[in-house]
Amino acid sequence: MSKLVTVNTVSQLAFLPNVFPVNCYLVEEQDGLTLIDTGMSFSAKGILQTAERLGQPITRIVLTHAHLDHVGGLDLLKEALPDVPVYISRRDALLLEGDLSLLPEEPNTPIRGSVPTKVKTRADVLLQDGDHVGSLLAIAVPGHTPGSMAFLDTRNRILIAGDAFQTRGGIAVSGKVKPWFPFPALATWCKTEAIESARKLIELQPALLAVGHGPMLEQPIDAIRRAIMEAEAAPSLVQH
Ligand SMILES: [Zn+2]
Asked: Residue 238 C-alpha to ligand 1 middle, in angstroms?
């Protein structure tokens, strides 16, 4: 069960939209499609079929962060597309390898959420803040995981933010629990950093917000501002 919604250069592919919705994105470039996130293992087939339907090859696989519901389809996709390079932040590349240790400068709070233990694929390109991947600008947005990244399509300011926000059950900064869909919040490493990162994303003046869980949101700046205020005011379920 999946649903495809296209806005400009970005197609959102939503899996299981009514139960535990997980989104992947296909971004059109002149040389093909950049896939952002791979869903769960059962998502791989649908992603390949969707690319076929869009009539373009997948030429890059980019990961917003290393939680299992975003990297679960990676091995199957890499098997089908062995020459396509895989991109993830240098920091979350460690999580992808199943390494949960923190770096000395990081807030000392445990990394949460389901981190893969059996994913074999390793990244080909390790991203840093400010890197470009085709038309996408990579922005470090630590909080949900230490190495989470968001991607801004510089042609139209569509922002693909992974789990830095959720829009399922109402917009929220990662770490703020939404009763109807609490999973991303419960999987968040450091809420303080997540709020910092949310502020950083507002400065990019996004025209559309696309996240890992929930529908795309046009003209999202006011909604993001409100979500930040709500996150700041909320008592924290987790330590940070
Ligand atoms: Zn996540």
From this structure: 15
What lies within 8 Å, CB to CB, of 121 at 6+ separation is 74, 75, 78, 86, 96
7 is written with which tokens?
A: 């806005």
pTM for this one? 0.95
With beta carbons less than 8 A apart as the criterion, state whether 115 and 101 touch: no
Query: Which tens digits make up the pLDDT trace of 58-86?
Result: 999 999 999 999 999 999 999 999 999 99
Amino acid at the residue 84: V
Residues with beta carbon < 5 A to ion ligand 1? 67, 163
Q: How far is the CA of 154 from the centre of ligand 1 (A)?
A: 24
pLDDT in tens, 113-141: 999 889 999 999 999 999 999 999 999 99
Distance CA 144, CA 58 (A): 27
